[in-house]
Amino acid sequence: MQIAQRMRPLQANVFADMDRAKAAARAAGKSIVDLSLGSSDLPTPPHVLAAIAAALPDPSTHGYCLFSGTQGLREAAARWYTDKFGGAVDPETEVLLLIGSQEGTAHLPLAILNPGDFALLMDPGYPSHAGGVYLANGQIYPMPLHAEDGFLPRFADIPAAVLEQSRLMVLSYPHNPTTATASLEFWQTAVAFCRRHNLVLAHDFPYADLTFTGQPAISALQADPQKTCTVEFFSMSKSYNMGGFRVGYAIGNAEIIAALRQVKANVDFNQYPGIQRGAIAALTGPQDTVHHVIDTFRQRRDAAVQALHRIGWTVPVPAATMYIWAQLPEPWSGRSKEFCLDLVKETGVALAPGIGFGKAGEGYVRLALVHPPEVLERGIASLADFLRRTV
């Protein structure tokens, strides 16, 4: 039996190695403090659960759901976007339901790239962005992100020969893993660059609400109000703690939305209508739960940053997301995977190695703030013991 060559780049997975290391540490009797995964520990809002529960006995929700069956959620998403960011959205042609935003970003390259075309991806960046390009037989040009640039890409550094073969640029701000944010001026530059080079601009935007500035993050569509080249991917996982329900949506250029819809039509049906009703309840109902999520992660951020500073590990204070992006001390610089594997083996504390997000992520680790402050502080105390023995 022969497996397709496109699968080869997907076989090496740092996070699978970490999962095995966590399992081994657990089997050895370690109590695991898992700060490696960005999966919120907060509960789904009760009114959302009530809407889903009420749908379960309804037999009209038990069959396949075609595009027309997603109209209610598409309309709610369009209204939500307009209320939050301004600008009209056509729910019929400019919104597409997704089974989680990751499904959409992974399928998008199939709609955009021909074999051999380049996609311009952030480095470090979210791993599934690369996976979708590989499955489409595309090539990846990594755009390195550096602290001195605010973890923003340098578009001028992209070679002309690569741009000639490029069809897609994927950005994501607030950014996982670096926690960086982007201004409207940056987005205006990015849109102008993509229009000049005939690129689709895809913005993965799961942390739209999870900022600590009092305002939502900037939408890429605010820099492209006519939706000339841009599509934006939204998730219900972070703002509404619905990660396990796998529901999200794309908003943007009608031609891109139509192409992505064609891909989806050949791969899957739509999300269970009961879950759609829950998503509608989340988007249209009281938003105090979103404010609670923001306040919770702000408190956790502050507790974790202060605990790290107390042990002598200086890290910047994130303005957004649910992570801390920490530069490794010597002698661990350049060995993020080894650091994380040894750490979980000896202490049970699991972090995400920066190399898992791309070559430019080496030298860093990501801490996910997915536990209460007292658990974060306990994990950082164990981290301090490990550093004292190894640094």
Poorly predicted sequence stretches spanning 5 or more consecutive residues: none
- For the biggest β-sheet, the strand order reads 2-8-7-6-5-3-4
Number of structurally distinct domains: 2
Evaluate the radius of gyration: 21 Å
CATH architecture of the largest domain: 3-Layer(aba) Sandwich
Overall geometric form: globular
Largest sheet: 7 strands, mixed
Which secondary-structure class do the elements indicate?
alpha/beta
- Estimated share of beta-strand residues: 5-15%
What is the CATH superfamily classification of the largest domain? Answer: Type I PLP-dependent aspartate aminotransferase-like (Major domain)
- CATH topology (level 3) name of the largest domain: Aspartate Aminotransferase, domain 2
Termini separation (Å)? 48 Å
Helix content: 25-40%
N-to-C series of helices and strands: HEHHEHEHEHEHEEEHHHEHEEEH
The CATH C-level class name of the largest domain = Alpha Beta
Helix tally? 12
- What is the strand tally? 12
